[in-house]
Amino acid sequence: MLSPRGASVDLISSxxxxxxxxxxxxxxxxxxxxxxxxxxxxxVSHLGxxxxxxxxxxxxxxxxxxxxxxxxxxxxxxxxxxxxSRKLGIRLLAQEExxxxxxxxxxxxxxxxxxxxxxxxxLMRPMLAIVGSRNASAAGLKFAGLLARELGEAGFVVISGxxxxxxxxxxxxxIGSGTVAVLAGGHDHIYPPEHVExxxxxxxxxxxxxxxxxLGHEPRARDFPRRNRLISGxxxxxxxxxxxxxxxxxxxxxxxxxxxxxxxxxxxSPLDPRADGTNDLIKxxxxxxxxxxxxxxAIEPILERPVIPPLREEEAEPVDAAPDSSERARITGLLGPxxxxxxxxxxxxxxxxxxxxxxxxxxxxxxxLQRHGGGLVSLL
Length: 380
Fold this sequence. Notes:
By secondary structure, this protein is of the alpha/beta class. Among the domains are: 118-303, 3-Layer(aba) Sandwich (Rossmann fold), CATH 3.40.50.450; 319-379, Winged helix-like DNA-binding domain superfamily/Winged helix DNA-binding domain (Arc Repressor Mutant, subunit A, Orthogonal Bundle), CATH 1.10.10. The protein is built from 16 helices and 12 strands. It has helices spanning 20-30, 37-47, 50-63, 75-87, 102-105, 120-124, 138-153, 166-173, 196-204, 223-234, 248-258, 276-283, 292-303, 325-333, 342-349, 353-365; strands at residues 90-94, 113-118, 127-131, 157-160, 179-182, 208-211, 237-240, 262-265, 287-288, 340-341, 369-372, 376-379. The strands form 2 sheets. The protein has a 9-stranded mixed beta sheet, with helices on both faces. It has a 3-stranded antiparallel beta sheet with strand order 10-12-11. Helix 1 (20-30) packs across helix 4 (75-87), helix 7 (138-153) runs parallel beside helix 8 and helix 10 (223-234) crosses helix 11. The longest helix is centred in the middle third of the chain and has 16 residues, at 138-153. It is globular, with a radius of gyration of 21 Å. The N and C termini lie far apart (50 Å).
């Protein structure tokens, strides 16, 4: 059996370190209105730097039909957040810096700056996610703990969402071997509140906590799916222990599948609604898990592959001058509330790819465009 300790390809060294000026620029950009991770990446790739993107934001938003003044995060605001984070022992890490989980860094929607507290080495080791029902059964809690303990003994870090139920059981039993908590809010707004002590124990034992949210951000319902993509994005695979239909854990499994991660599910009684989601995942092709060895066998081949960021062709395309009115009308006219792929949009608009991507950037900054997984976009 392969051991992930010390031999993992996740342990890719990085000597890059941002200057404070560059970190402030990137923080200002991602905290500005209508700029999400994908938009951030497109802006920086097309314009060359966060500072250049900040200078172009008002113009691009106006061209996209934005009403009113786009809110751009100020220098003082960004400096205050950076100072407050450092005071709490939080590092705001860029994707190319040491301590940023390498598998997460390969995603199109990876956070441009990740707020990290705790042991950086833990974030560099191979991770497996364990998620499941908040209202878990006694059997589910026991099995989640058993899985977490055995995976930890095999050298894996267990990552989860610090929620009640299965998440809590997975964290508690893997504290000694290494566990990572992914937060839906800022580091100063732990949810649920009763898990403040659990998080403290994780950090004291050289675990880690990560979030993409600023300090002061209280988690809302829409923040949990965003958090879930970080859980699956950091991991080699996601193990769902219990999940009812329409469970947040099934969202994590779906995201894992979209990200190319392995999906595992623990079977349960057909009489228990908490097993409906996991049993359905198995029907859909998830790997059935009854012991940690099932997971390890499936993960071993992945450990031998290097973590390489995907080649993104659009990053070579500069933002040109504004497309002409006929191009803009064709591109915008093809958009509607139903998601469409960017590749189809380029083909149907019969316009240069750079023009299509420029219009999409403008519409997004104007608050008129929504990006979905798989390269899909729609009008709001």
